[in-house]
Each structure stands twice: as structure tokens, then as C-alpha cells.
Specification:
Blueprint (H helix, E strand, L loop, with lengths): L6 E4 L3 E11 L2 E5 L2 H7 L5 E7 L3 E9 L5 E4 L2 H7 L6 E8 L10 H9 L3 H5 L3 H12 L4 H35 L1
Antiparallel strand pairs: 1-2, 2-3, 2-7, 3-6, 4-5, 4-7, 5-6
């Protein structure tokens, strides 16, 4: 393995380790030690925060490798700020990021969604999709444009709720046939 055994530094799930930056296709990655993946004990994508090289802030996700372990992608901005490149050994200190990710829903959007009973549906959308939609609403220059966009957001949330209800009905129907 390309990393030393991870050391648990605090009871708040903080892990420190050193690993080599490698290229994986177009991406730059750090393989997370097996001991860290096991200690995190969460399969799939895991949001993490911490530091790279002791001072560069890092917010990323542990990405599953398929063998019970994870890797971290290092984007260009993080690599540039830390002054690292492929082949360098880096020091990471990470912890599971429990802070909510994504943008805050503006009051007018939240009120419109609440009025239609789809605020919870909107909140359950993928963080990236929510951020994209909220950014789209926020970049409206005129109030009339913003109002139209808020109405469109409500339509999207209603459509998503309908799609989810259709899936539940289909599952229930399949269950009766079996």
C-alpha cells in the first residue's frame, strides 16, 4: 500500500496519514489507508474535511475503490494551493464532514415550496442539483425573472414528488404480482 498506517489523533474521528499522489486517468488521487476506511465504517461516498500538507484546507469525499477501501480526488485548486504534483508524498489530516453541504435555500424559494408542500422533496434532491438550481434563481437580475424561476423550481419539485410517488406505486404493484 502507498500509505503508512493511519493514526487516530482525536476521539472526533480525525485521522492523519501520509500517502503518495498518483494519476488515475485524468485525475490525481490519494489512496486512503485501509485502516482509515475501516475506522470510518461507512461504505460508499463519505464527505470529509481536513488539511493537506498541514495547512491547505480540504473538503472532498472518500470515494469507494471497490475493495472496501477509499481514495480521495485532489482537484487542481487544492494541488496548486498545496504545491503538490503526481509522485509527491503528502500529509493529510481528515475527519468525516458532518456539516451540511450545499447552498441555503433562499426564503422566497422555501416559502413557495412550503406553500405547495414540496419543501421536503426539494431538500432531498442531490446537493449538486440543489446548488445549481439555487444559483440559477439567485443570478436573476430582475424580480420578475426571479419570480418566474421560483415558480419553475416549484414545478421541478412537484415533478420530482410525482416521480417518487409513481416509483412507490410501481414497487407496490410488483410486490402484489409476485
Amino acid at each position: 500500500m502507498a500509505a503508512k498506517k493511519a493514526q487516530r489523533r482525536t476521539p472526533e474521528e480525525e485521522f492523519a496519514f501520509r500517502a503518495k499522489v498518483t494519476r488515475l486517468g485524468l485525475m490525481y488521487v490519494v489512496e486512503v489507508p485501509e485502516s482509515v476506511s475501516k475506522a470510518v465504517a461507512i461504505r460508499g461516498y463519505v464527505p470529509v474535511a481536513g488539511t493537506l500538507q498541514g495547512s491547505t484546507p480540504l473538503r472532498a469525499s472518500l470515494i469507494p475503490r471497490g475493495d472496501g477501501c477509499h481514495r480521495i480526488l485532489l482537484n487542481g485548486a487544492v494541488r496548486g494551493a498545496a504545491g503538490i504534483e503526481a509522485g509527491d508524498r503528502v500529509a493529510l489530516a481528515i475527519h468525516v464532514d458532518r456539516e451540511p453541504r450545499g447552498a441555503t435555500i433562499p426564503d422566497d424559494v422555501a416559502a413557495a415550496l412550503r406553500d405547495e408542500g414540496v419543501l421536503e422533496t426539494f431538500e432531498s434532491l442531490a446537493p449538486g442539483k440543489k446548488m445549481h438550481i439555487i444559483h440559477w434563481v439567485d443570478e436573476a437580475v430582475h424580480e420578475e425573472t426571479r419570480a418566474k424561476r421560483v415558480a419553475r423550481v416549484v414545478e421541478v419539485a412537484l415533478g420530482e414528488r410525482e416521480k417518487r410517488l409513481d416509483r412507490e406505486i410501481a414497487r407496490a404493484t410488483r410486490g402484489r404480482r409476485a
